Amino acid sequence: MSREKLSSQEIAEALGALAGWEMADESTAIEKTFRFSGFPQAFGFMAECALFAEKIDHHPEWSNVYRTVVVKLSTHSAKGLTKLDFDLAAFMDKAASHH
Amino acid sequence: MSREKLSSQEIAEALGALAGWEMADESTAIEKTFRFSGFPQAFGFMAECALFAEKIDHHPEWSNVYRTVVVKLSTHSAKGLTKLDFDLAAFMDKAASHH
């Protein structure tokens, strides 16, 4: 089930498959800072991720200052990390690579 | 000049013409929290503001969690508030009203 809280072991494996994401909020969230060449690239990235987030009904906490986007992912209903967070993280990494 | 730092008197007048914006960071910035009916509305608002921000080459610091968008405006080159901040604030209020 994609909204079931992952175990520490599952989280470690999922994190190991990604680059640049770090644990946050006492291991209930993961965070990453993305940097782009300018604001249009940063916001283009956000727009692409927003469409995906809406599609999977799982949304990021994120902030943007010019060419930087800081993202935090967590599943509040599970009070921790689920497969959805890692699906969204993987999508974001892929999206960032072409903006 | 739109990138010239405004006086306290000018800031008070400009703030008085807006609703819901508050001074922040020792009067070098203004902040507002916008709430929408859902994520698509919140992100639609951000997309509209992003296009305007790029057009006037003046960008917000902002964060989004689901249906909430928190915005901070300041002109770093002037180390304070300029007409650009209030132009962007007024645009954001107008954009928020139809999302």
Question: What features would you describe in this structure?
Answer:
The structure is a homodimer of 99-residue chains. Chain A is of the alpha+beta class. Chain A has a single domain (8-96), classed as Transcriptional coactivator/pterin dehydratase (Gyrase A, domain 2, 2-Layer Sandwich), CATH 3.30.1360. Chain A is 41% helix and 21% strand. Chain A contains 3 helices and 4 strands, in the order H-E-E-H-E-E-H. The first copy, chain A, has helices spanning 8-16, 39-56, 83-96; strands at residues 22-24, 29-35, 61-65, 68-73. In chain A, strands 1-2-4-3 form a 4-stranded antiparallel beta sheet, with helices on one face. In chain A, a hairpin with a 4-residue loop joins strand 1 (22-24) and strand 2 (29-35). The model of chain A has no long low-confidence stretch (mean pLDDT 96). Strand 3 of chain A pairs antiparallel with strand 3 (61-65) of chain B.
Please, what is the oligomeric state?
A: homodimer
**Number of structural domains of chain A:** 1
Could you tell me which chain pair has the largest interface and how many residues each side has? A-B, 16 and 16 residues
Could you tell me the mean pLDDT of chain A? 96
Give the CA-based shape of chain A.
globular
**Secondary-structure element sequence of chain A?**
HEEHEEH
- CATH class category label of chain A: Alpha Beta
The CATH homologous superfamily of chain A is named Transcriptional coactivator/pterin dehydratase
Gap from first CA to last CA of chain A:
31 Å
CATH architecture of chain A: 2-Layer Sandwich
Number of helices of chain A: 3
**What portion of the residues of chain A fall into strands of 2 or more residues?**
15-25%
Cα Rg of chain A = 13 Å
List segments of chain A where confidence is low: pLDDT < 50 over at least 5 consecutive residues: none
GO molecular function, one term (chains A, B): 4-alpha-hydroxytetrahydrobiopterin dehydratase activity
Enzyme class (chains A, B): lyase
Protein name (chains A, B): Putative pterin-4-alpha-carbinolamine dehydratase
GO biological process, one term (chains A, B): tetrahydrobiopterin biosynthetic process
